[in-house]
Amino acid sequence: MKALVYQGPGRKAYQEHANPTINAPTDAIVRVTRTTICGTDLHILKGDVPSCQAGRILGHEGVGVISEVGTAVSTFKAGDRVLISCISACGKCLYCRRLMYSHCTSGGWILGNTIDGTQAELVRIPHADNSLYPIPAGADEEALVMLSDILPTGFECGVLNGKVQPGSTVAIVGSGPIGLAALLTAQFYSPSQIIMIDLDDNRLAVAQRFGATSIVNSSDGKAVAAVMALTAQRGVDAAIEAVGIPATFELCTQLVAPGGTVANIGVHGKKVDLHLESLWDRNISITTRLVDTVSTPMLLSTVNAHRIDPKLLITHRFKFDQIIEAYETFGNAAQSRALKVLIEA
Ligand SMILES: NC(=O)c1ccc[n+]([C@@H]2O[C@H](COP(=O)([O-])OP(=O)(O)OC[C@H]3O[C@@H](n4cnc5c(N)ncnc54)[C@H](O)[C@@H]3O)[C@@H](O)[C@H]2O)c1
Ligand SMILES: [Zn+2]
Ligand SMILES: [Zn+2]
Fold first, then answer.
1. 1.25.40.180, 2.40.50.140, 3.90.180.10, 2.30.30.280: which CATH number matches 2-149+292-344?
2. Distance from the CA of 76 to the CA of which of 59, 217, 243, 329 falls in 20 to 30 A?
3. What percent of the chain has a predicted confidence (pLDDT) above 70?
């Protein structure tokens, strides 16, 4: 089969690769019909994710059709159309029983990291019964590709952890795919304000179309004053960090109102300061989370019912043999204006 293989920092190749086989009776093999590229794949390519070694097929998002199942798989059979979760989960270990699938002792985020991923014609999915979701008849499969990772991430790490409520005020720092996913799913709760903050006017314009009540370009260094002016000098009940750098985390701690929550989504590779000297008396909470994808069934229902349309995040489409071009487009988002690139078999 063909696959996109990580070849060590800065290098990747679209090349011939051996087909995956069933290793454990709980595995399934899925023929990938649609996949995409995540910002995390770019992090791997930069060499930021040491657990991912050269020779690994990248990708942790996608939909497809089951081609083969192990003898212990009971929920799915060959021919079933499925959504692949970025998190593999046994459903039985201590963490899975606490619905922390991301910390499954024999799963978690392994796909396209420590085992071969979805940017291939075929992928092996471990713990298939609990890591795949059936695609309902008539569903829009392009939209569902957004449910493998970015929608549950924005919703679980941002909206749920940020305790977004009817009437509450929300600021989302970072208007990339993840921040926009948080923006879309925050609206389930009817907050009174959702202020989107970014350096990129194009992404802020997208945020406005997606339902932001205000947009703030923070490149002038005056985002705190702008948010205070929008919230009667209170700050926001939920400050959601969707970038992953020290400056944006610190910004969130300056934007949060007394009693509010800083919900961190971003993957941080560098030391970040926590200014307890100015936060200790503000009754705030700070949350962190690796996406668990426990909200996937709920998100599937809301997408199928047209309550939200994550397909709006797709800006570019490629065939699988154009995946190198897809990486170039996605990696050059400032010029290409890419959000999510859809890659089709
Ligand atoms: N916690 C999890 O489970 C999880 C899962 C997936 C992704 N992530 C992380 O979420 C983060 C966001 O992902 P993404 O794909 O949307 O990333 P992205 O890089 O596409 O988007 C980040 C956005 O932040 C903006 N930005 C950069 N510097 C800024 C600054 N100083 N001030 C304001 N805005 C700034 C950029 O213009 C961009 O629009 C990444 O760190 C990613 O690794 C976390
Ligand atoms: Zn991802
Ligand atoms: Zn488990």
1. 3.90.180.10
2. 59
3. 100
Read off the pLDDT of residues 197-254 as tens digits, 9 standing for 90 and up: 999 999 999 999 999 999 999 999 999 999 999 999 999 999 999 999 999 999 999 9
DSSP string, 204-241: HHHHHHTT-SEEEEGGGS-HHHHHHHHTTTS-EEEEEE
Q: Sketch the domain layout of the chain as residue ranges.
A: 2-149+292-344, 152-287
Query: Going by CA atoms, what residue is nearest to atom 40 of ligand 1?
Result: 266
**At a CB cut-off of 8 Å and minimum separation 6, what does 193 contact?**
169, 170, 213, 214, 230, 231, 236
**How far apart are alpha carbons 216 and 224 in whole angstroms?**
10
Nearest CA to ligand 1 atom 18: 176
| Separation of CA 128 and ligand 3 centre (Å) | 12
Atom of ligand 1 nearest to the CA of 157: 1
CB 300 within 8 A of CB 327: no
Q: Which ligand is nearest to the CA of 341?
A: 1
Q: By CB neighbour count within 10 A (0-12 exposed, 13-18 middle, 19+ buried), where does 68 fall? A: middle
CATH class of 152-287: alpha beta
Radius of gyration, CA atoms only, the chain: 20
**How remote is the CA of residue 94 from the centroid of ligand 3, in Å?**
7
- Ligand 1 center–CA 242 separation, angstroms: 5
Which ligand ends up closest to the CA of 217? 1
List, chain by chain if needed, residues with CB within 6 Å of any ligand 1 atom: 39-40, 149, 153, 157, 173-179, 197-200, 203, 218, 242-245, 247-248, 265-267, 289-291
Residue 269 banded pLDDT, cuts 50, 70, 90: confident
pLDDT band at 301 (very low <50, low <70, confident <90, very high): very high
Query: So what's the pLDDT on residue 270?
Result: 86
